[in-house]
């Protein structure tokens, strides 16, 4: 057990900033949990040439642009990001988990591993791993739980099929398990028109919001401006080639 004289404490620490990790961070941060996403290296989606099976993009989208937009969305919703390699995740005092990086140690109530394709940092005997071919996966329950209290896994590293939207959806599902396991009251994350709940004599449920027409129009205009800016010019980055393909 690592004794921490603690430098930083978070509700949720997420390892990896691909579709699974960023979507998990979006959901836990929007639920009000203090969330940090730690990433080193590139999400594998940066190798894609054109992303055509993510809902909502009728003609597809540049996958590097998609990752930039998801990153931006996560940050706008209050999730913090750190660029660092996670070296170990171990038990800490007080029932927390300790996430050790090159930069220091972060103590967290919940850790979500989305670190395709690295499991080397998991120093906990109770985490079961499965090897298939050259890859290692983290065994999880339906809710993304591992054998260690507070430790979850999501996305490809948790054995999900190898598609962007599947990893993102699994990140959301596992994040909601964390939200339900935390002390945050019941949570829906809906934005409804004014009166949707209250004009039926109901309180607006926790995690939900009612907005009036003016606010709805303001948000729509903001989203249009943000999207127009993103789609003004082609993305500058080329796909990352597989490391075994030699430069021509
Ligand atoms: C060439 C190619 C084309 C593809 N095309 C498509 C497509 O058209 N449509 C589609 O749906 N899917 C496609 N995919 C698959 C898709 O990219 C993945 O299934 C999906 O991105 C997996 O997301 P993830 O969040 O689980 O993992 P990743 O996106 O890989 O994210 C994991 C992150 O964790 C980081 N990490 C790992 N270890 C550590 C550590 N110890 N500390 C900190 N960070 C760490 C990694 O560097 C990475 O940034 C393609 C994949 C490839 C390779």
Describe the structure.
The protein is of the alpha/beta class. Helix content is 25%, strand content 22%. It is built from 4 helices and 11 strands. The strands form 3 sheets. Strands 1, 2, 3, 4, 5, 6 and 9 form a 7-stranded mixed beta sheet that branches. A two-stranded antiparallel ribbon has the order 7-8. Strand 7 and strand 8 form a beta hairpin. Helix 1 packs parallel to helix 2 and helix 1 packs parallel to helix 3. It binds flavin-adenine dinucleotide. Flavin-adenine dinucleotide (FAD) binds next to helix 1, strand 2 and helix 3. The site of flavin-adenine dinucleotide has 33 residues, from helix 1, strand 2 and helix 3.
Order of helices and strands: EHEHEEEEEEEHEEH
Attached small molecules: flavin-adenine dinucleotide
Give the rounded overall mean pLDDT. 94
Secondary structure class reads alpha/beta
CATH topology tier name of the largest domain: FAD/NAD(P)-binding domain
Instruction: State the domain count.
Output: 2
Number of helices: 4
Largest sheet: 7 strands, mixed
Search tags:
248 residues, globular, 25% helix, binds flavin-adenine dinucleotide, alpha/beta, 7-stranded mixed β-sheet, disordered N terminus, 11 strands, 4 helices, 2 domains, two-stranded antiparallel sheet, FAD/NAD(P)-binding domain, 22% strand
Task: Please provide a brief summary of the model.
The chain has 248 residues and is α/β, with parallel strands linked by helices. The chain is built from four helices and eleven strands, in the order βαβαβββββββαββα.
Spell out the blueprint of helices and strands.
Blueprint: E1 8-15, H1 19-30, E2 35-39, H2 63-76, E3 80-83, E4 86-91, E5 97-101, E6 104-113, E7 129-132, E8 135-138, E9 151-153, H3 164-181, E10 191-193, E11 209-211, H4 213-230
Parallel strand pairs: 1-2, 1-6, 2-3, 6-9, 10-11
Antiparallel strand pairs: 4-5, 5-6, 7-8
The structure holds flavin-adenine dinucleotide (FAD).
């Amino acid at each position: 057990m690592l004794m921490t004289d603690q430098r930083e404490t978070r509700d949720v620490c997420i390892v990896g900033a691909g579709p699974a990790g960023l979507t998990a961070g979006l959901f836990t941060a929007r639920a009000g949990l203090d969330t940090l996403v730690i990433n080193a290296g590139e999400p594998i989606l940066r190798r894609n040439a054109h992303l055509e099976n993510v809902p909502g993009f009728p003609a597809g989208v540049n996958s590097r642009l998609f990752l930039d937009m998801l990153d931006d969305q996560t940050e706008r919703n209050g999730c913090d990001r750190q660029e660092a390699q996670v070296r170990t995740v171990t038990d800490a005092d007080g029932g927390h988990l300790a996430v050790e990086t090159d930069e220091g140690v972060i103590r967290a109530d919940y850790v979500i591993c989305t670190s395709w394709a690295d499991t080397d940092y998991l120093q906990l005997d109770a985490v079961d791993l499965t090897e298939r071919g050259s890859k290692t996966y983290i065994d999880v329950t339906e809710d993304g739980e591992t054998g260690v209290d507070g430790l979850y896994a999501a996305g490809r590293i948790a054995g999900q099929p190898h598609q962007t939207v599947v990893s993102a959806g699994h990140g959301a599902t596992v994040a909601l398990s964390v939200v339900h396991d935390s002390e945050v009251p019941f949570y829906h994350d809906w934005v409804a028109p004014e009166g949707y709940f209250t004009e039926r004599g109901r309180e607006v449920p926790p995690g939900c919001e009612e907005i009036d027409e003016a606010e709805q129009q303001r948000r729509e205009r903001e989203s249009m401006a943000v999207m127009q800016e993103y789609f003004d010019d082609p993305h500058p980055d080329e796909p990352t080639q597989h490391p075994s393909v030699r430069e021509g």
